[in-house]
């Protein structure tokens, strides 16, 4: 069952954006705009958590187990510079 918030203070630009979304027909109500925004934020936070647990954590753990396997920063920087030079040359 829907519940109502007592008061929600929003900046003028946020209020304008919400009203524009409703006026465009993209959303039926201001509440729908806010709910969609909160769901999008939650989705992004969930994806960040998944990335941290599935990618960052295992990479960190692997580095802790075998730090000598890491590529030296000098070679990483050289590779990045070479790639940046190629991009500049292409443009």
UniProtKB/TrEMBL annotation:
Keywords: Toxin-antitoxin system. It comes from the Bacteria. GO terms for biological process: regulation of DNA-templated transcription. This is Type II toxin-antitoxin system ParD family antitoxin. The lineage of its organism: Bacteria, Pseudomonadati, Pseudomonadota, Alphaproteobacteria, Hyphomicrobiales.
